[in-house]
Amino acid sequence: MHTLSRSEVREIDRRAIEEFGLPGIVLMENAGRGAAEQIHAHAPDGRVAILCGKGNNGGDGYVIARHLELLGHDITLLTVCDPADLSGDAAIACEVARRSKIPMQLLAEASRDQWHAALAEATVLVDALLGTGASGPPRGAIAIAIEAMNACRTRTPRATVCAIDLPSGLDCDAGIAAGACVTADLTVTFVAPKRGFTSPSAAAFLGRVEVVGIGAPACLLADAGVLG
Q1: Which pLDDT band, with edges at 50, 70 and 90, does 82 fall under?
Q2: Do the beta carbons of residue 60 and residue 27 sit within 8 Å?
């Protein structure tokens, strides 16, 4: 199984955009649609809460929300940052979700109790808080959101947790959690499994791992060792 490091993930994205002319928003759209299809296939029916961070992982979450809605799911978006603070592709994806009238709640300053209340009715939780670029222990609102997600796995009936690209709080390369870390039932990762997934310590956080493409050209993936 070929895995990708943090730097290799960035290089694939860079080359797809700069050398092949694929806009970043197209890659994000492909990734989000593929992730939504995996969540639809493997997660139970019911209300879906998608937790979005500030970066491109959060942008993926906004795309996933639209595609899950198209697949018939009841969606709520919960964001840890003001949409006005987003930039680039994540800002575009958020604005499309807003214009699509998908319910969105800002919880940047929310307490633990407020997070628990926001997640109380959800049967599926989608972790789009932190991506492969994150390192070190999660802090502030993201740490509180992670703790609230994990608490939902202990209730009766418990929520199913789906992580996007990797569980938030898990280091992409080392496969260890330096602090709060999402415990996922399903991890939908892009292009290839991440290097840290092979670490024995990662198994407790990953759950089932499914890989989806982002539309990068085959010759680029071959150069990266993903295709054989």
Answers
A1: very high
A2: no
Alpha carbons 195 and 198: distance in angstroms, whole number: 6
d(CA 50, CA 161): 10
Written as six digits, the tokens of 203 are 């198994």
**DSSP annotation of 158:** P
Distance CA 71, CA 90 (A): 22
This prediction's pTM: 0.97
Helix or strand run (H / E) with residue 188? strand 186-190
Domains detected in the chain? 6-223 (3.40.50.10260)
End-to-end alpha carbon distance in the chain: 11
Q: Which pLDDT value is given to residue 155? A: 87
Q: What is the pLDDT of residues 19-36, one digit of tens each?
A: 999 999 999 999 999 999
Instruction: Confirm if 71 and 101 have CB atoms less than 8 A apart.
Output: no
Tens of pLDDT, residue by residue over 129-150, are 999 999 999 999 999 999 999 9
Helices and strands (H and E) in the chain: how many: 8, 7
Residue closest to 159 by CA, chosen among 186, 130, 189: 186
Measured on CA atoms in the order 214, 196, 131, 183, is the torsion positive or negative?
positive
Write down the pLDDT at residue 225. Answer: 94
CA distance 133 to 28: 15
